[in-house]
Amino acid sequence: MTRIKAVLFDLGGVVFESPLHTISSFEADQGLAAGTVGRIVTEAGGDGAWARHERGEISAETFERGLRQEARRFGVDLDVAGMMRRIEADVEIRPRMLAAVRRLREEGLAVAAVTNNWKGLDAPSVADHFDVVVESCVEGVRKPEPEIYRITLARLGVAPGEAVMLDDIGVNLKTALNMGMTTIKVTDPIDALEELGALVGVSL
Question: Is the pTM higher than 0.90?
Fold first, then answer.
């Protein structure tokens, strides 16, 4: 069995509390059915406003206008600016995740943050905790596009089979798995860290 040399962490939903919970709360407050925003974003796909914003291809203003237009196709008048303000205001670090990152580094494993985000995101900086930080809006590619994983692995200097990827979104993990990485879906962060610890032989 190939020895694990590196661990890749998603940020939102793994190192940070999940923005999906904030979106769900926003939907409830706005009287929208649960999952409405997700359906709008998924339907628009890789060329939609959300994906283009995460790749850094469009301004915040163009993103807000585009997502509002996409929402109208579902008969929804979406307060995009209000939603994004709430998402940024609710970013909260999971201290145990950062403690695990420190522990892994102490044990000689490389660690990376690989995240879909956007320019100007107002979130706590955790860059100093990682050997490598790969951001979709900087690289021009986003999860689940394979290239963002290739960039991360190359900067860490490891092969896919030597890496573990933690993410809270299944489609992102599917790409990593298809490339040869070991994957852990983060639903409960404590359970995920126990699974990771067992894989790498480190108490987390």
Answer: yes
